[in-house]
Design goal:
This protein is an alpha/beta fold. The strands form four sheets. Strands 7, 10, 11, 12, 13, 14, 15, 16, 17 and 20 form a ten-stranded mixed β-sheet that branches. The protein has a six-stranded parallel β-sheet with strand order 3-2-1-4-5-6, with helices on both faces. A two-stranded antiparallel ribbon has the order 8-9. It is built from eleven helices and 20 strands. The protein starts with 5 loop residues before the first strand and ends in a 12-residue tail after the last strand.
Length: 404
Amino acid sequence: MTPLPRVGLVGVNGYGRTHLRNAARLHDEGRLRLVAYADVATAAAAAVAEHCAEPPRAYPGLGAMLDAEGLDVAVLGTPIPLHAEMIEQAFGHGVSVLVEKPPVVTVQDVDRLLGRQENGGPVCQVGFQSARAPVMRTLARLARSGALGTVEHVGLVGKWLRADSYYARTGWAGRLTHEGRYVLDGTLTNPLAHGLMNTLILAGDDDDHPATPATVQAELYRCRDTIEGDDTASVRITTTNGRTILLAVTLCARTQVEPYVFVKGTLATAKAFYTAGALEFEPSTHGDAVAAGTEKAPDLLANLVNVVGGTREQLLCPLRMCRGFVLALNGMYESAGRPRPVSPHFTSVHVENGERWVHLVGVDDLVERCAHQGQLFSEAGAGWASPTRAFSLANYRNFDLFSC
């Protein structure tokens, strides 16, 4: 019998605990062997003991784990600025990787890692599970079949709120760089990254080939003076296959709602609430709302160990699918530069249970309107917004803004 793939986890707290639970379940089901983990947190051992009847071996870091264990797969639930070097480190040991989103944040990093995969060997799966969710496949099929009419544009509406503690949880949160590495931690890099990736999937010619950005025009803003990255953004992307994408998002909403991507056609608009698994139509006479909340997101680790184990499966979200995502991120900052501060005149502050929240007045309605009308915030007349220019990504190969 073929030996089960040997798996090690890097980071088992925070979101890493989700990977821990899943890896432990797959281990108990006899689909992989969870043999090791690495985490510097004092609570790591307790977290592992909670989920594993026979706790795997502990290591102080990825390097020590790679040197000591003959791993097949490393699961990286680690901070954004460490992703690129850790993927490369794993590849150097012939180990395949499941990495959280965003996989990396500069085009030169993604190109270097893709180059390492050209002649076979280890592979990299990226944690964009919602891009393969049934609701996304259904919406993409509707858009490409003509059921919505001629597609006018694809969009994302994201209205979330984050307290100051969200940015205080770690040293790299809300930063453009940290300890000599790029982070670019903003709305679309991290919390609403799934939305950006999903719009590229919808704008692509098929599910396996997300659209490639040709130009990006971005307006990036921050409502706090304690962060460098954006907490509010509007972005227009034109793609090499002739699509237009409009993203309007904020982490300074008055009320948090489920984010959604949509396809606006000449006959109807269809929305996919990708975290909830629901599909809605406007006008409703064009089709019934489809509730899909019981649908499970695909299991990226199970898929990866199957591929590594030699089945005929293909990776659900290989690194190559994410190059357009990274290009879009880099293009946003090339267009907008450093996120612009919003005057406190346009914001309000709310304190509750010891948490401090900043709200951008009127942004909830503005985000919705801009996304559906295809406008940037400045084009919609927001008093705090300033216009920018579109940036061409033709032959773009290197991001070097914001000195590290």
